[in-house]
Prior knowledge:
777 residues; alpha+beta; PH-domain like; eight-stranded antiparallel sheet; four-stranded mixed sheet; disordered N terminus; Prot-tyrosine_phosphatase-like; Myotubularin; Myotubularin-like_Pase_dom
Amino acid sequence: MGASKEKKTIDLLPNEIGSSSCDDVSFSMQFGESEQGKVICTKVRLRFIPIILKERDVPQRSKFFDDFYDVPLTAIAKMEVALVRGGSRGKPDKFHRIEYSISSMETASVIRLTLKDMRVVTIDLRRSQNGTHLANQILFFSKSGPIEKMTQVGAAMEDRGQKAKMPYNGYDAWHAELQRCQQKTDSSSKWNILALHKDGLNPPGQGYPLYVVVCNILSRQDLDRQMRHFKHGRFPIWVWSRANGNGSLFISADHEHNVATSEILAKVQDSIARCHPEGEKPHILKLDSGFVARIGKAFDNLLSLCAIDSYEQYVSRQRSWSTKVHRTGWLHAVQSCLEVTHETVRWLIDRDRSVILQEEDGKDLSIVVASLVQICCDPFYRTTTGLHQLIEKMWIALGHPFGERLLSTEQEKKQLTKMPSSKTGINPTWLLFLDCIAQLHRIYTFEFTFSPHVLIALWDLSLTGMVPSMTCNNLQEQLVAHVGGGPFPLDRYYEKSYLKMFGNVWHDSALFIESIKKNQPISPHSKFLRCESIRPPTEFCDIHLWSDCYLRWILPANGKNSGNLSDEQALDEKMIEMAKKWRSTEWKKHLELPEEYSSAYPYSIPEISRPIMELNDSDMRRPDDLDSISLDSTFNNSISFTQTPVRNNATTEPIFDQSTLERRNRKAAETIGSESPVIVMRPKEQIVGFSKYAFDETPSRRQHSKTIETPILDSFPAKYEHAYQPTPARRSNTVRSDRPIPPPRPAGLTPSRPEAILRVHIDHHDDTSPTTRVTRF
Length: 777
């Protein structure tokens, strides 16, 4: 059954009323065909109602928003409008970013929305009325107002979450956390669960919960002095301790500089040293004070690079892609967080010392690093339940300003001057944290019980404005607004078909095999795969762009029936076979994929065809004996040029029929092997075909070689003096002089599972044409 048949109509939320609408509009998302219909703007979303509903073979993810027809207004990062000027004779002008309402004398013809999740939405209003009013309504409701007036906040919970519990705002949660870390909680305990509101401490720490954990030897006078000395009253508090060690982790804001500074800092260090069994003083790590601004700038650059809405942009940005990603600065921010995390882990584990993470405000980088340290040092936080508690403790209870960082709820006062067109005002510290977990998950796949889809779901959910704790800036705002509740459980917001992808098939398969060996049922608390600690990467070569999140909407950037999903599906099928063989009922099917799926499933559909870009004759030459089949079309994960839709004035033409394609695909699979390699070619290379030797039906020609030869785009001569002779595959030792050799991988960063590696060799011979060899080692 196709996923499209399982979809159900998503109703509007209670009290969600439409404010503006336009008929006879053309609506499209990036790389999608334009659809005709009606657009409605409410206080929560922009909804498109098509005349003819297009079926897509992907499941419905959210219970409240459609990925293809709904746009949460709080997820809009940038809005651009093309106006019809008086002297343009009805033709729309170029796009201009708008921050203020458009005059009613202007005519908005096209609206382009860039979303924070890298999607691009285009609304053509040239055949519709009321376009200017629609643009003004979208702009008005995209700016988050008071929490009480946001209809979507808490809409998924009973009474908007008024009765929802705030675990770490009370005594019991901190008491249970101390016990889980194997710390004493009786009268002999070295820790004190302090009630800030009851002990008369004034003013209370800004963003701190009502209860915090401090050293037991600190008196009320000492705590009052520390609270007044540290910025915003965020003095050092306990967040975690090693169960098998002596070190503990603290976070705080930066301190003031006055005559009492040395005395107060000495008291802080002495109190923490007394809580250490060996009396070791804590190590203080001072974090970057300009972290938030740097993250905002890097995200703006990343959004400008990854928000692609046409094939022309994709082709132009594909050139020097790695350089452009490098220049965004986002990967450097990820590396910086992981470096500080690695240093903190060394102090806690290798030196068995306590650490204080000190940041200017104590709400951003210190929370990111402290959370990553607990994931690296505590196996409990690498489970779904542990991730839930970690977010509740570090991000919600300790007052990370989600509303200000993601939804710009406090940006109205700061936007008195017009913001530059390249700025969005978003500082997604939360996204950086999820990206760092994705980096750890990629390296230590078997150590996590959840899949990266959980991280993507959390990011998408935080942009909708539906989660009270991710819309407010701290617990105090939730109490004042009478709303509450975190993102978990995720089944409150997502459909079951999407929830099935949240399990880690690699982790579960290892536990299943171990249970078969021991003839025991699978234990979710098994310590078979639990590593005491993992070390985050520190070298830049080990930091990868999180393409599963940032490029999931770009069709040509994702393959067909390939990627991690194909590996997971093969593993899932193998485990099902083993379960039948051993008559076990422990294994449950993890993936239910359609026959044709994208490597970015379930976020986008597979790209069946793409426009053929026009090339100049001077760009390349091709021998006359070459056919017109592309390299990518020989593999199952590639894209065919057959039946290409016309878009953006691109010309199309069928190159070969389906029977020829299937025959050549089977021949290519036999030549290369049973697995489908992923080969990325530049656009100009994609329309260059194989030589006649690649699919020659006579096996006697090439018995010694199992490689595929295809011409490289180069200025090779039109005629050859000698006959073509394939060269046996060999490994090239040539190193480009203009590109530095990357440093070796640090110890302990070996990937969790071996992967096949494709080597591409370029051979130049005097008597033969330049060829590319694709060989699997």
